[in-house]
Amino acid sequence: ECIQITLYRKNLFMLDKILENKVKIHTRDIQLATYTHKDSRVIVHGVLKDRRYIRVFDVTGAVKEPGIIHNMDVKLLIKSDPLMIEDAEAKMLHVPMNECHTTLDTMEKLIGVEIKSGFSKNIRNLMGGEKGCTHLCQLVIAMGQEIVHGWLTQKRKNKSSMPKNIDYFTEKEFLIDSCRMWTRQGPKVKQLEQAIKTRQSI
Q: Across the strands, what pairs with 91?
């Protein structure tokens, strides 16, 4: 498979060149993984780590040394038909304040949430803003895409029959209009329609 590397460049200054001699001051790492379970279920694991690389002063003027700021771990048990969160667990391994741990009660609100259009907005409404922890909320939102891709990966371990037409394509609610390639007139849908026609002609 040929991989083409493309570059978007808005101006004459190459940002990657500028960064060559720069020292980073903060990073956010999010790691996501999906594991098979039983009865077509999957477990999705997400970890968020924020690290500060320089000494700073917080809003009160107190000195904050370099190091880990946030380290959060979330596990979601996902069932299908419909695709939804069946169980949820979270740990805050490192947070700025002990009071941050009180926001873990928002995880219970995730049980029964379906993975469908509007997932991110739904999660913000349940556990975002003053209701909970911004970082925990953002990690769960980031896990939404991994839930879909992890579930699809497990689902496609075995070859399935070709749908009769695009309306019978069971994965359409997750894929169609999810990006420019998957619009109704986009190349992925055209490939699928051509594959259906080819299969029908055999």
A: 73
